Amino acid sequence: MAKITKWRHGLQKGNSPLAKIDYKTLDNFKYSEDLEQLEGDVPLQTTLSSLFLDKSIKISGSGSDIAVTNLVTNSSAYPASTVLRDHRDLSNRGDSGVIRATASYFGDVIDDGSGGLEPRGGPAAHGSVPFVLDTVLNTSISIFEIDVIIEEPLSREDRLHYAIYLGTSSEGVRIYDDILEGVDLEIGDTFNWSFPEHSNLTAGMQLHVEMLLDKGNKGDRTRWTPLKVRPSEAEPDKIYARLLAREYGFKYLAYLEELLCAEYSLASLTDKNTLHFEDCSLFIDVDEEPILFETTTQYEKHIVEFNNLKARVTALENP
User: Which domains does the chain have, with CATH numbers?
Assistant: First the structure.
């Protein structure tokens, strides 16, 4: 008790353990006893994986997406969205300034024969390079694991940091990161890093990627070093890595009103193998051109499928 009294007396005398910047931070955040919540009056910038709703939901950045992860099932949802481009740019105030609603599309797991995707081919027989990579994506991918061969030992006390930045250095905007501890491996072992959320990356992105090793220097980024890994045989100055990833992209969404008005115009049929749309688009990828069928059977099957779809949509609208 004497120590507490002495500490409080020190605070009264101005001998505070808090710096001026700490007081400024506290001034901007207040606890409301009535509402039982913390209130802030300034914008808050956090890491890419820092918003948790109790132990149920986590919201995090995931490359080109936002991931909403169910912490009970460890499954992630990627919300659909409509995009408005920057309207301060006058060229975006027309139709080109609106990107209609899209949803993330996840296709098959990619396999180039290696059990995954080896962007720079197989590993060299020996050698060591730091895990720092600058690359431009040729295709859109959704990465859920990266495998490398390590060239320095890892102990359970080490902390690994994986990050993807836009641009050619860590000074760019960070769009994905993950932290891992408890890895115990020797030189020459294969290190399989599975990510809690996919890193969803689109073709054409210029990316800077790092895997950094922190040996007991938490918080002191200047002392983190790139992990030493095996190089690629085809490109010995670059890392070897095998990615486990899915095909990835965006699909435009059809609105309910579009589905309801997408009637087939039977009166405009020129022959049994050509299908015309009225002034609406059921399949967004169709550029308002007729659909050609090789046989009458294909055409009739398509009519049946459409009528079944229309019945389901009508049932949703009139439960």
Answer: 2-40 (no CATH), 116-250 (2.60.120), 257-317 (no CATH)
